[in-house]
Every structure is written in C-alpha cells, then in structure tokens.
Specification:
mainly alpha, 2 domains
C-alpha cells in the first residue's frame, strides 16, 4: 500500500512506476518532489480512488503470457499489437522526453550523458515512430487485407496486386534485423549504470527505459513467433484460393 503522506521523492525511489502514472495524470512531479502524494493530488485535483486504482493496475505485468496470446485469433492479436504501439508512442516516449528535459545538467557526474540524451533521444523517438507506422502500414495492413479477402474473395484484383508487391519473408528478415531498437540508448547510458547519488529524474528514466526495453523484446517476440507464422498461414490460404480460382477459369 502506498503511503500518501510520504514525500514524492521517497515514493518514487521505492516505486519508480509511480512517475509514469503521475505524468499520465498531468503531474510535473519533478517540480514538487518534497510534496506528499496527498498534496499533489489536491494541487492537481486528482481523485484519490481513481489514482489508487490506476496504481494497482500498473503494478500488474504489462506483458501478456505468450501461451495466452498464441490462442488469440489473428485480428485480436493485431489489436493487441496496435494497443502496444499506442502505449509506446503516446505514453512511454513522451514520459522519457519529459524526464530528460527535467534532468538538467547541474549534476557534474551526469552532465555529459544528459546532454547526449537530449540530442540523441529525439532522433531515437523519430526513428522509432517511423518504424512503428511503417510496420502498421505494411505488415499489419497486409495481414488485415488477407483476412478481409478470405471473408470476401470478391476483392480478387486488389489481392493479386498486394501479393505481387508484398513479401512476408522480406518483412520478417527486416524485422529481425531491427529488433534491437535500444542499442544506442544502452550505449549512451553505459547499460543504464547509475551511482547512488544520481538525480531522481535519471533514476526514473533509467528504470523506465529498462522496462521499456523488456516490453519491446516481448513485443518483437509476439510478432516473430506468433504474428508472422499466422500471416504466412494466411498467405498460403490466399495463394491456394487464387490458384484454384485461376484453374477453374
């Protein structure tokens, strides 16, 4: 149980995940580190029962079990992956950007790494978002088009065109090559190393980045081990249908 009477800086040291929750509620907690949680909720007009319910949910694992995900039909698996993308882009990345800007450069031991992150993170963010949208526009859209076609084969012409321009094997190869999105960030942060005197904003940032990296690894595993096999099976069914249709005509 979280104590609402403790200073925010103490709570965040013990439970770094609270930082992202506060950020999602619009709280710039780095400006009020000596306030208690009760004072912050009053300052930002947050209802305690809503906040506590959000905290309880956040302590549950964000990573769904692979055996459960394997049982999902393809359209629900895509919905799960789409949801992950929205969480990454709308919540994780803005939170990290806020922490980097809030870190400042006053701590001499971390001045260089903070300056490097301020330059490198926007580039990482832009490249990551571009990668996500490309994946949705190419892979996810192609899988959804095959699902629609198998439900309604009258879209014969558009399916032939898409098959001629899309290659699941090529997508899978590029996806495997792009799996380690965080390599540059790990290098800048020296594998997320901090000493005990590190500023709180960096403690929260490094903790969040490590959890984000685990989320990305899980996300890539779901795509590689579940989505691509399902997509290849769909492609096999679509090609088989088109072949039979061509023979009959």
């Amino acid at each position: 149980m979280i104590s609402t009477s403790q200073p925010i800086r103490v709570l965040l040291q013990d439970q770094p995940v609270l930082g992202e929750i506060l950020f999602d509620f619009g709280v710039r907690f780095h400006l009020h580190q000596d306030d208690t949680l009760t004072q912050l909720m009053e300052r930002y007009r947050i209802e305690e029962h809503i906040f506590m319910a959000t905290v309880e949910l956040a302590f549950e694992s964000r990573l769904l079990d692979m055996s459960y995900l394997a049982q999902l039909p393809t359209h629900l698996l895509l919905a799960y992956l789409d949801y992950n993308h929205r969480q990454f882009i709308k919540h994780r990345l803005p939170y990290f950007a806020e922490l980097i800007q809030a870190a400042g450069t006053s701590h001499p031991d971390y001045k260089v790494v903070i300056e490097d992150l301020k330059m490198a993170f926007p580039l990482f963010r832009e490249d990551f978002i571009r990668h996500v949208y490309k994946e949705e526009d190419e892979l996810f859209a192609f899988v959804r088009q095959m699902l629609v076609f198998l439900e309604d084969p009258r879209r014969y012409g558009s399916m032939l065109k898409r098959l001629s321009t899309s290659s699941l094997h090529r997508m899978a190869l590029h996806h495997a090559e792009d799996d380690d999105d965080m390599a540059g960030i790990r290098s800048l942060t020296k594998e997320y190393f901090l000493d005990p005197e590190a500023p709180l904003t960096l403690v929260l940032l490094y903790d969040g980045l490590q959890k984000f990296e685990k989320e990305l690894a899980h996300h890539a595993q779901v795509e590689n081990e579940l989505l691509f096999p399902k997509a290849l099976e769909l492609e096999y069914k679509v090609n088989g249908f088109i072949h039979r249709h061509s023979v009959l005509n």
